[in-house]
Amino acid sequence: MEKVSEKIIDIAGAGSSATGVGGMKAKVMAAQVAGRYGVPTWIIGGKKDGSIRDAMRLGKGGTFFYPSTAKMKQRKHWIAHLLKPKGKVKVDSGAKDALVEKGKSLLPSGIISVSGKFESGEAVSLLDGEKKEFARGLVNYHSFELQKIKGKKSSEIEGVLGYKSYDEVIHRNDMVILGEGD
Question: Is residue 153 included in any domain, yes or no?
Answer without folding.
Answer: yes
